[in-house]
Amino acid sequence: MAATYSLDSGLQHSPISVATKCEILRHLWDVDVQPFTYYDSGLDFDAYFSYYTEQCSDALHDGGRHVSVRTHRDIVQITHHIKSSLDRNSIKQILSSELPVPKPANEDEILDGSIDLVARLLFMVNFGCLQYGFTGRRQVSWTENSLRKCIKKYFDAPLMLGQDTIKLEKIFNARNLGRIAGIEILWTKNLADHLSLIDDDNKVAIFHYASFLECQRNSPLFPDGLVDETLRTLALLFPGDKNTKKWFKKLSTSQNLDSNAIKCGRLRAEDRHIENFKLWHDRLIILKQVFDEAEPSTISQWWCDRRKRVQWYTFWIAALVLMLTVFFGLVQCLEGALQVYKAFSP
């Protein structure tokens, strides 16, 4: 019973005990993890709980005057309401009946803030509006119906781009986005931002929480195919070859990335066609187009970019000829200077 009672600890208490984390996972994700196997499960749960702690801390700003939740048990109770497919108004009515009398003047704000917090923790998608903390660039609005229907409506948007002949070559991966195309990666905690290009197409958001996705494979809350396809985009961008692993390991240590993002496997040649991606189809096409159209602008990019072999060889042969010309020109200048010096100083 000790693990159950650990849910009554306050959201502001840090760090969260392993027993409490296991209970939270059981209620939120229906994942049965025991404290003694928490670190041996093969999944990086701590990457998610870093997000969990941050979201709770942001929600409790200003003394917690904008939410009603105070303990992990409060989170769990709202989670059960959401999983029961209740619409938002029904959940608000239940929570309103549990508020102390007299009810606070900002009752609606408190109820909406609590529901949005739990929705963010369940889906890792930005719901509501936080006054503090970086909330991401895309926010999903949930005002009616069940959260399941809201998520399905957002991610099941019709395709706008129809270029189904595109093949996503092996060179098209996260490491080469920067090395070749100069596209900076922003590691996002918001699934709705995944693969979005921002800042004049100079940056791309990548949702790296592979462990979270692995635990949602059989979840009825997510639209059919969304979790599996998102994991396949990670397999596409992080193929797990030696160079990519080495590159990712350096980043994961400094930026607290989910270590399982590099363990999603490799896609076969036939799986790398764009028609195999339905939900992330348009964003992949746009990212691939920006990648293909990018021209090298630095010496490093010229060296790494071998997509156009003839152009690559031409550039480096010209660079070699230029360096040799400069070198021999310098040698001749030095030789001439020595001859003049010896002529006047016998």
> Could you give a short account of the major beta sheet?
3 strands, mixed
pLDDT averaged residue by residue: 86
Shape: elongated
The number of distinct structural domains comes to 3
Quaternary organization: single chain
Helix/strand class? mainly alpha
Q: How many distinct beta strands? A: 3
Tell me the fraction of residues in β-strands, as a range: under 5%
Distance between the termini: 101 Å
Order of helices and strands: HHHHHHHHHEEEHHHHHH
Q: Summarize the amount of helix as a percent range.
A: 40-55%
Q: What Rg is obtained from the alpha carbons, in whole angstroms?
A: 27 Å
Number of helices: 15
Side-by-side strand order of the widest sheet: 1-3-2
Low-confidence stretches: none
Secondary structure layout plus pairing:
Elements: H1 2-5, H2 18-29, H3 45-59, H4 61-64, H5 72-83, H6 88-97, H7 107-123, H8 147-155, H9 174-179, E1 184-188, E2 197-198, E3 203-207, H10 210-215, H11 226-237, H12 242-255, H13 281-293, H14 299-304, H15 309-344
Helix pairs in contact: 2-5, 3-7, 5-7, 6-7
Structure description:
The chain is mainly alpha-helical. The chain folds into three domains: 2-155, no CATH class; 174-299, no CATH class; 308-346. It has 15 helices and three strands. It has a three-stranded mixed sheet. Strand 2 (197-198) and strand 3 form a beta hairpin. Keywords: Membrane, Transmembrane, Transmembrane helix. The chain crosses the membrane at residues 313-334.
